[in-house]
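Morning F.,

Quick status update on the modeling queue. The single chain you submitted on Monday has been processed. Sequence for confirmation:
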Amino acid sequence: MTLAAVVLTCCSEDSEVSAQTVESTGKTLVVYYSYTGNCEQIVETLAGQIQADVMRIEPADKTQRYEANNYAIGTELLNTIKAAPNEATSYPAIDPVSVEDLSPYQNIIVVTPLWWSQMAAIMQTYLFNHSTEMSEKHVALIVSSHSSSIGGVVSDAKRLLPGVVWAGDALWINNSNHSARASMIENWLKTLNLAKKQTIMGKMYINIGSKTLPVVLDDNSATEALTAALQEGDIAYEANDYGGFEKVGSIGSMLPTEDAQTTTQPGDVVLYNGSQIVLFYGSNTWSYTRLGRIEYTSAEELEAFLKAGQGNVVVRLSASSAPTAISVVRTAVGEDVYYTMNGQRAYAPRKGLFIKNGKKVVL
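Structure tokens below.
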């Protein structure tokens, strides 16, 4: 799984479409533990914004319910660590990890839940076991909690990793702002001091009707060509439902392809046959070139946005979240198809300025 970078705060819309280069970053490993699923969602969001390898930490004993009996089991694990923090036997056992050699990684992002104002005992085990290997690496921290502040987790991290270079302040994602994690992570990443160079994904924006949603772009030759075209102006095309799981339409020009067998998920944006852009509200397995992923908050929001199953729509791709008049329109439909200057299909145009076959015309 590829992804890259670390921790950040806040929200701001980025009108840049092209991939951004962060001067102080390098090959990155994301290490996470997730008990309730919140940290897993955070890592999935992070993976859409950066390039990095991802590794999940699992406890050896998967039967324990840490919250049972008024948090008795979890509290006992934490108290055992506090009683003898320098003893390996104080830490609960974890499964063998999938990445044993940390030497290729300059940056490590740790994503962990908070247990009763402390770092989850399972993640503490991993950091204790690999403290020496992580020495002098650039490390960033994301902490998930319900509402408790994360000072105790930060203290645990510094105790366990005394020899690392901290890349910046920890990012706190709690119950009240979890739904805004995409923008928080995006802004936080820009504040980090990482090792060497790395690419953070750019964005484009999709407009259908009166609503616009951002797309976090993959980094490949197809998105480079697409973002270059969007710098010249918006691209509008007609998309149709197909198979009960996608909206698909041709942009009227070819993009470079890097096709691979792919099982798509709702929100994925891919390129098919070099010229057709597919927006998924379901899933399919085929050979595609990945373009990116729509940022949305729920399945209902995505289906409403794509007007799933409701027929043809005009899709407008833009470099900005607030696109202006269309300057470029690419469509594969016939010569008698017109669009208004704000991208809407004009079925019986009589008088005014319109787009026809990619050119502005006056009727």
